[in-house]
Amino acid sequence: MAKTATPSFFIEWSVISVPVKSKPAARNQKTELTIFHTGCNAPRKQLFLCTACDKPAMTDEDIVKAYKTEADRHVLLTPAEIDELASEKSKRLEVKAFVPFEEVDPVYLGPSFHLGPIDPSAGKGFTLLREAMRMTGRAALVQYAGAGRDKIGLIRPTPDALMLHELFYATEVNAFEGLKPAVTLSDSELDLAKQLVGSFEASFHDALEQHQDGFEVRLQALIAAREAGETAPVEVARPVAPVIDLMAALKQSLEARKAPAKAAAAAPKRTKKIA
């Protein structure tokens, strides 16, 4: 007998409940490095010590948590007290509102997860929700519990499935407090700037695929060199951009963008010889 899949969540939309499975939509591919002790070439062991009695490796029974107040005092809280506050475990993704997706500022978006129907029997309800959101240009604001806390998320339709984004609460997003320059831009500056922006136009995915983490590439090259017994350091060129006049910089940049196209247009065209 085939084993029944367990839903990761249930999307609850009014009286409709759609069981779905989830999978992280992106993952960190950074190379992990372990800390070793120089000379011994052995991994370092982390040890927790009490700053008062200097005792190591305290157990969970010996630990309380503390909140530091503005008066530089600490309020002590036991694990049992904190556990009492934890949100009840649940697999519910409760739809609270449907919002225009174009109004969502990306700063609120956290980790992302693909959502798909748990089995064929959930396909109709799942597809109905996705198509309704796609046709209305809406995304679902949902509430759920995770790691003992109340969380909010955003579900949006994708061509093949749904995407769940964890959201920061409004109180967790910092307002801009930096310099707000009061300057006047000339029409010629704006025109050149718009032309320069236009010269860089590309689709998001095409542009993204042309780039990679340079540090990660150099780190992998260094690791490969060490594995091969080479000890020469990796040379990294770090160009420094000169500071120049804004208008001159715009014109110079725009000309640099146009140069390859001009060269291609000026190149003599080859004529095919007919035997």
Q: Any overview of this molecule?
A:
- It is a single chain.
- This protein is an alpha+beta fold.
- It contains 6 helices and 11 strands.
- The strands form 3 sheets. Strands 1-2-8-11-10-9-7 form a 7-stranded mixed beta barrel. A two-stranded antiparallel sheet has the order 3-4.
- Helix 3 crosses helix 6.
- The mean pLDDT is 84.
Strand-helix topology:
Elements: E1 9-13, E2 16-24, E3 36-37, E4 42-43, E5 65-68, E6 74-77, H1 79-85, E7 92-100, E8 109-117, H2 123-136, E9 138-146, E10 149-157, E11 162-167, H3 187-199, H4 204-209, H5 214-227, H6 246-266
Helix pairs in contact: 3-6
Key traits:
275 residues, alpha+beta, seven-stranded mixed beta barrel, two-stranded antiparallel sheet, 27% helix, 25% strand
